[in-house]
What does this fold into?
Amino acid sequence: MIAQAIARRPPALIAVMCLAEVLAMTGFAAYWSLLPVLQPEWHMSNAMAGWLSGAFFGGYVLAVPFLTAMTDRVDARHVVILGALLSAGGLAGLAFLATDFWSALPWRVIAGAGLAGTYMPGLKVLTDRLPEARQARAVAFYTASFSIGTAVSYALAGGALAWFGWRGAFLLTAAGPVLAVLALAVLVAPREPEAAAEERRHVLDFRPVLRSRETMGYVLAYAGHGAELFAMRSWIVPFLVFCLGSGGTFELDATLFATAISLVAVVSSIGGAELALRIGRVRLITWAMLTTFAISVAVGFSSPLPFAAVVVLCLVYSAAIQTDSAALTAGAVAASPAGHRGATLAVHSTLGFGGSLFAPALVGVVLDLAAPLGGMTAWGLAFLAMGSMALLGYVLFMLVRRRRTR
It folds into this structure.
């Protein structure tokens, strides 16, 4: 049986799960890619557009504690299949039924719940089936595939817009999660989860995780990282459109540049994981989070520069943000209490993506309030707000570690 053969070959299993993640994420960035068209079409202010972006992460945060924690009790593969079906349903709802902010809102929430069922549960599929010695690099490749999925989603939705309109673009991206379901059903063998070292109570009992200070240090740092990352990804296309000017093809051009910016993050994430193995996770996280804050300010006030220079700065910013992504997640996995890896990933995701619920809206509010100061200043302050999110995550990371070592 092909699934059993793949189970005996860790590199093949890693490749299958990375492919399944990319397929499940084909609609992940579709809203952001189409935002320059959707915002006037749905009569949304910047704040409303930010809230609708954040609604996706609201669905994620609502669903991820239960769906990810369930992987400690049932085969994570079943949870990922459910999540992929939710993603496809949310995207189809946007394609057929969305006409404004309010009619799009529930479908964004459903699509976010779909990501909750695919991303961290997919990582649990891997860690349940791999020896511990292989897990750090597997986490690096898997989390880097998140950026590949983001890039594919930007490109697919942006390209489909020109051919099929925004409704057709949403519908086309819904095909990816369906293909992910087929890949998981055919290529991944079933496996029971790891037994717990202590008696489990209810599925949402996260006390063993919350008591682990080492684990929570990585979780809080990941919360700041996630808020900055998804605020940037929510607004990078409108920012590039602003830098380009206005015109019929600029939205697509900006989408393609956003795709390239996401792809750079793939190399950065894998490289950061390898660097963390050599210099240590804490040192790598410190360097990455402080650097991204400085770069965020440079990007925000770069709009008067030649567009090529703006794109280069955005590429550097994207690479810096993703440098510590795998290290943060691998650190949380390594520090997870025995038998509670799923619960750890649930807390990691809930707090990590919880900030993402508010981060895009916060940036939208900054843009609206700063609009009278001019576009250059407004975008500069918006990116300053993004960088401050990661800086706060780093401060919390160091405070929790210091308290743990006393």
In short: The radius of gyration is 20 Å. Residues 94 and 106 are 9 Å apart (CA to CA). Confidence is low (pLDDT under 50) at residues 246-252.
